[in-house]
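Predict the 3D structure for this chain.
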Amino acid sequence: MVTRVGCHACEVAEVEVARICAEVGARWSTVDVDSDGELRAEYGDRVPVILVDGAEHGYWRVEEDRLRVALA
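Done. Predicted structure below.
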């Protein structure tokens, strides 16, 4: 998950992703979009961004049903 420090939407999404991943047994992690120029150029205007297996799955909010399918 690509996030930004101080981003309220990112904080909400992190809680949701953590809960869903715990329930389905998936590992997850975050990376700060501002820690890398390439990440900032790609995702800077759309955080939080959810990646599944390295591919962009969604951004701005967690679509729980879609995420569960992608993680299955």
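The mean pLDDT is 96.
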